[in-house]
Predict the structure.
Amino acid sequence: MKTTTVKNVLVCVLALLGLLLLSGCGQEHPFVQKTAFKDTSSIVIKFAGPVDEGRAKDISNYTVYEKPDPDIKLKISQVELSPDKRTLTLTFERELNQKQPHMISIKEINSEGRSLGSAFVSVKKLYLGYLFSVLIGAMLINNFVFSKYLGLCVFFGTSQKKSTAVGMGITFTIVMVFSAMMAWFLYQFVLKPYRLDFLQIVVFIGLVSLSVQAVDTILRKLNPVLFKAFGVYLVLVIANCIIIAVPLTLAANEYNAMESLMLALGAGVGFLIALFLMASVRERLELANVPPTYRGLPIAFVVAGLFALAFLGFSGMSIF
């Protein structure tokens, strides 16, 4: 009986999560079935039925712009209609910035002699794919340590042993996710509505301080050994660049809750990966024949530079 109840609860939770993830993917006009990017400079619109060819191919009937910049209209060079008159392809003069959602205004759709009114629809990448790209982007493509060079103090201080590095990485990720979600909530429902955006840095630092203090207290009680291994570096997390950069990034990009969660989780896991890689190399360097002038922190900086060069291979990569 208990097993059945647990299964039912899990199904309900997964269903609600699916609805949340897929929200915003539906079209605003019932006759428009689907909108999608075709290639770097084209958008495809699929209708539920055949449309009037003359009106459909008239470029003046379409207005397209990026959602963040409604005043900048994108110029259409060509309009193509499929033989069954159900699929429309808009080709633009310039490449489209597919990282941003686009809005399309269609003047009065005609189908089989009937007027179906005007349509105002949006086109964007698959939302689940977009969330995954935010996660992978923060984790690898734009790794905050090797690509943005943030958080180096804690990075070099806690990457001498793999055990300490993994512990700090997990702790760092928990603090980052918790503080980022609190920062998103306060920004969206307090700072932004009341026009207190200029206080965001002060507020975000306060939230991080609360998160670190909570983790400090928990670790002191549950794992004193790990707490002593972190030493002063756990306190330095309060003013760590990455911890502050994540809330500022999600506020600047107007991310929603799921996007903010993916950004924070990706940044935290990316920091964990950077710490583990660095600790693995530094443990081997202790047994290597390193020149005296390069031992310790100097050789660590050299290794970090080599890792940064390696991570440059991810730059410009597009997942979806």
User: Anything to note?
Assistant: The first helix runs from residue 2 to 22.
